[in-house]
Amino acid sequence: MTEVEAFLKDHSDRFVEELKTFLRIPSVSAVSAHQGDVRRAAEWVRDQLTQAGVASDLVETDGHPIVYGEWLKAPGAPTVLVYGHYDVQPPDPLAEWKTPPFEPDVRDGLIYARGATDDKGQMLTHIKSVEAWLKSVKSLPVNVKFVIEGEEEVGSDNLDRFLESRKEQLKCDVAVVSDTSQYAPGIPAITYGLRGIVACEVTLHGPSQDLHSGIFGGSIANPCNILAKLLGQLHDDKGRVQVPGFYDDVTDLLPEERKQFAALPFDEQEFLRSLGAPAPFGEAGYSTLERRWARPTCDINGITGGYQGEGPKTIVPAKASAKITCRLVPAQQNETIIKSLEQFLRDRCPSTVRMEFKTYHGCPATVCDIHSPFMKAAKKAVKVGFGAEPVLIREGGSIPVVGTFKAVLGVDTLLLGWGQNTDNLHSPNEHFSLDAFHRGIHASAALWAELAKGS
Amino acid sequence: MTEVEAFLKDHSDRFVEELKTFLRIPSVSAVSAHQGDVRRAAEWVRDQLTQAGVASDLVETDGHPIVYGEWLKAPGAPTVLVYGHYDVQPPDPLAEWKTPPFEPDVRDGLIYARGATDDKGQMLTHIKSVEAWLKSVKSLPVNVKFVIEGEEEVGSDNLDRFLESRKEQLKCDVAVVSDTSQYAPGIPAITYGLRGIVACEVTLHGPSQDLHSGIFGGSIANPCNILAKLLGQLHDDKGRVQVPGFYDDVTDLLPEERKQFAALPFDEQEFLRSLGAPAPFGEAGYSTLERRWARPTCDINGITGGYQGEGPKTIVPAKASAKITCRLVPAQQNETIIKSLEQFLRDRCPSTVRMEFKTYHGCPATVCDIHSPFMKAAKKAVKVGFGAEPVLIREGGSIPVVGTFKAVLGVDTLLLGWGQNTDNLHSPNEHFSLDAFHRGIHASAALWAELAKGS
């Protein structure tokens, strides 16, 4: 590691310049006008990997290309799959950026640009660490495979097919993704659990068009009234989901996990204040972090029906609908939950309206073994890079690829987030700490060594 | 009446031409670009009244002018106040009109134009009948006062002040309004009861902005979830309103009324088919007509919260709101009902969200004495004009001015509708039967005689 660390030190300025070059490419995957830019970013990543010593290529898909690279010259050593993405969110609203989103600007040690933290800056740390090994000691202590996609921000439509079709080629022992956050500044973290998600939309159809509520009200079922009645039964007064069997498969948190969460600095009042919420809320018997990370939910994300404008309008609406997502935790089964939810609503829906139920793509919850050698290696590596023992946390959101890696490749994923929750990802003035960038490269370089040791 | 009837016959073609002239004026009160047209319509009505022999003037208001006219040369005879409106709804969507909305076109005995039935064609019948009396027998058997406003389609904002401030001048024995419908073709009707209305909007405020439902879901109250829970309690499974005291002041229908309603031709299956509703609905123990005309309701007219676009979006919404109206029946008190509704929601609203409750303008239910001499006179007059005994019906909608006439002037209103429910009022291809126009004039002419007789 001494030679590697020396290389990192010597080339740290160049790494920042390269990150800037990467950030200047407006690889907005959602906007077709940027198609050329997205491809340019893919080519840039391929070239970075190649110059680092990792044989790489673009793999064409029905959408944006996937960059695939591999270095497999460490026989007997573990094989690590690094996943990341080179595409970025649209930069809107542009007017709110202090400096242009695709002209990276460094202020107070933070680099501001769309994609700085999500995920260009974080992902690049692994390419740079590999380069450092391959250019200093001329080899890596592990085998690495890179899968860097260009459609993460638009649903990764072509990734699953790629992973399925290259299952053999992608065989590995563990996956590494840096696309999450530290727990807080100065408190690096490894995210070992993610909630899953099921998504659906329920629509109640009543009369064929909006009716005058004076002429017809009381003699015709009102889809808004009925929708409220149905959805109002989803939770009890304490917010516990009433869908039969909803909690049946939930794996309880281990005492050890609850202890870890409880030990994390967390200011409940500051949390409420920052969200502007009037009062604490959540399932009885669980802390706020437990509710966010390890308890399932059923949230109406949108509800709509009838008149949406200003003032009153006297109609019985023709229809009403709601978008609902449930965040799931291990070991809830997506299929079971969505079916139970549909059945719950159908059982309670009167024949005076017609129910339409539509499901959207979801993904299962995942949790990794916190006592695995990979996890131990990652903890040591993060400590090398960041100078502090990482805390083990979960995350309430969903990263579908982690479930896919488990399902298709049979491996756990180490979620090593170098960013902060406050990095404005998906918002104007996205940024990433250059200190975290360098520490991330260092941690990544250490990770290859620790994984090889089998910790 | 013989001379009057002869006059009606001799001038029927001219009356139609005059109606066409009236309909050509695009007096859309809601659209400021039509302000000049609205005024032109007011002037046209004033001139019509004046040439008929009724001294008339425009009364300026903060909005569009009110036409006021009076002929008071029948000492000792009853005084009748005729109310109508010269403004019309916007004609949109224009593309759906077969002929232009302000170029009246007669097809199959129907005159097509915006305002044909609502209310220009219907209102004009009373001016023409007065003209017939004053130009043939040179006097009227009753005193008449005309109040024709230009803001009915935009909420009659200035009418109440006008009525209040001219209370003495407007003193009368009964009011007459032709702005409703017959029961069906060939079944003329007098509407003797109207439902009232209270309107409100409830908004639940949660976090200060939409939050990521993965990161925060389960730890923060979701205003959509809570709104559904609150509104879902408004009705029991059979659609009966659960607000305490809601039905306390309801005057039950008289056996005589229920008998009258039951005798009306009404095809339940055709009713459902025409509305496109999957199944019958309504309060147990009441017929569809009773539910529509004489039972109170509580309808969500619009509900909104969170994401409104296509597909899923994983947020906990910052707020959710619903527009609610209750149709009221005699003798429910508007103030009591709206207060109970608010209290019902507040009692059930948890402290995790902040409730905002906003009320809109409403009006009380009204019912007229079906055995009064005025009603008897009206029944006779309608029979003269339409050749059939009118049925006595109620109406589920609200006509606020009827309540105001009762409250301010202390009089009942005779709602003599010459139109049909199918006249497309407020819709493209609005029309009015010219036969009904002439019969309406005839009935109106007979009404003055019958009212004078004291029937």
TrEMBL record, chains A, B:
InterPro entries: Cyt/Met_Dipeptidase (IPR051458), Peptidase_M20 (IPR002933), Peptidase_M20_dimer (IPR011650)
Domain Peptidase M20 dimerisation per the UniProt entry, residue ranges: 192-351
Claim: Protease is one of the keywords in the record: yes
Entry keyword set: Hydrolase, Metal-binding, Protease
GO terms, biological process: proteolysis
Gene Ontology molecular function: metal ion binding; peptidase activity; succinyl-diaminopimelate desuccinylase activity
Enzyme Commission (EC) number: 3.5.1.18
Pfam entry (one): Peptidase_M20
Keyword Hydrolase part of the UniProt annotation: yes
Name of the protein in question: Succinyl-diaminopimelate desuccinylase
Protein source organism: Caulifigura coniformis
